[in-house]
Amino acid sequence: MVIINRLGSKFIIVALLCAPMFAKATTQAPKTVGLASSNNSGLSALIDEALKNSPDLKASVHKAEQLKSLILPSGSYDDPTLSYEIMNLPVDTYSYKQTPMTGKKLSLSQKIPFPGKLTKKKSMARLIAKAATHDVQQKQYEIILNVKKAFYKLFLEIKNKQVLGAQKKLIKQLIVSARAKYTLGQIPQAEVINFQMEEADLISKILISERKIRVEKSNLASVIGRNTNIVEAHPHQIVKTYLLFKNIKFQSIKDRALKNSHQIRTLEFNHQSASEGLSLAQLQYYPDFALKASYTSREANPIDNGTDFTSMMVSVKLPLLFFQKQSNNIKAAHSHLGRSTSLLNSKKIRVSNKVHNIYYELEESFKTLTLLEDTLLPLSKQAVRTGKSAYLGGRVDYATFLGSIRKRFSTEFRFYSALTHYETLIAELETLLSGPIDPK
After folding, report:
1. CA 105 to CA 282: how far, in whole Å?
2. What is the dihedral of CA 239, 158, 371, 257, to 10 degrees?
3. Going by C-beta distance under 8 Å and a sequence separation of 6 or more, which residues neighbour residue 27?
4. Which fold has domain 2-77+114-143+244-285+322-433?
5. From CA 208, how far away is CA 313, in angstroms rounded?
6. How many Cβ atoms are within 10 Å of 426's Cβ, its own excluded?
7. Which tens digits make up the pLDDT trace of 341-391?
8. pTM exceeds cut of 0.70
9. Burial track 44-61 (b if 16+ CB lie within 10 A, e otherwise)
10. What is the pLDDT of residues 282-327, one digit of tens each?
C-alpha cells in the first residue's frame, strides 16, 4: 500500500510538472468516439437479425395472433343444434302407420346467454389480446437491450486486448532501451528483468483477453439467434451518445416511463380484463335461455289421417346452486382482480425506482466519461510521453515511470469501460421508456 501511494504521488508530481506542456493538448481532446457517422459498427444489422431470428419473439407473436383470433369467437353464440328423431316406432312391425304416436321429428335449438355475458367475454378477449400485443413489443425492446449489452461487452474485451497490446509494445521498446543502459552500467540488471516480467504478465493477460473475446462472440451469436457458436463481429469503436441533461428532466422521464412502458401497459390491460371478468362473474347470477323449435311428420293411421305437429320450447337455466358456484366464482374474480391490481402497482413502483436509479447513474456516468475523455486520459498519455524521456535521461526512476505506464493504460481501459457502461445505461432506460430518451 505504501509503494502504491508513493507511485501515485510521483505520478501526480510528474503530471503537474508537465501540465503547462499539455494544457493545449487537453483543450483539443476529441469530443466524439467512433468512426464516421455509422451507428456503432454494424450494431443495427445485428439487432435486425436478432429480431428476425428470436424464437421467444416468434412465440410471443404467435400467441398475440392466437389471442386476437379468439376475440370474435368469444363473443359469439354457441352453434345451434339440429336434431332428427324417430318417435315411438313399434318394434313388432316397424310401421309408421300403426299408431298415431309414431312420427319423424326435426328440431332446431339455440342457447342464448343472458344479455351482457357475451359482450363481457368479448371485451375480456380483446383486452387480453391487447396485453399480448404489448408483450410482443416489450420482447422486442428486451432483445434490443440484450444485443446491445452483448455487443458492448465484446467491444470492451476487444479494447482491453488492444490496450494490453499497446502497453506490451511500449514495454518491449523499454526493454531494448533498458538493456542498452544496463550494458553501459547505468541501471542494475533487476530493472531489465522487471521490464521482462512486466512483458510476460501482459502476454498472459492478452491470452486471457483472447479467450474472453471468443466467449463474448459466442454470447453475441446466442443472443442474435444464430445456430453457430460464434459471430464474426469486430466492434472496434462505438459512437458516444450525447445527452443534454438540462433538457431531460427526471420527472418527465419518469412520467413517460409510467405512460409508455410496455410492461405496465401489459399489466394495465390484464387488470382491465380482470375487472371485466368480475362483471361477468356477477352476471352469472342471471339465468341463461334456450329456444327450441320442432316439426313432427306423421303418417295416416287407423285413428287419424296423420296430421303433422309443430312445437316451440323455451327453457331457462336457473342458478339455484349459486351459494356453491356463482358466489365462489365471484370471490375468485375478486381475488384475481386484486392480484392484477397489486401486480400493476408493484410494477409501477419498480419501474419508477429503476428509472430513478438509472437516470442519476446515467448523469454521473456521463460526467465520469467526460472527465476521463477530456482530462484524465490526455493527462495520463502526456505523463507517459514526458516520463519516457525523463526515464531515458535518468531523471525519473524505474518504479515511478512504470507506475505512470500502468496508470496511463488503466485510465484508457477505464475510459472504454465507462463508455460501455454509459451506453448500456442508455439502452436500459430506453427499454423502460419504450423509446429514445430524447425524442427530438
Report:
1. 38
2. 50
3. none
4. Outer membrane efflux proteins (OEP) (1.20.1600)
5. 84
6. 19
7. 999 999 999 999 999 999 999 999 999 999 999 999 999 999 999 988 888
8. yes
9. eebbebbbeebeebeebb
10. 999 999 999 999 999 988 888 888 889 999 999 998 888 777 888 9
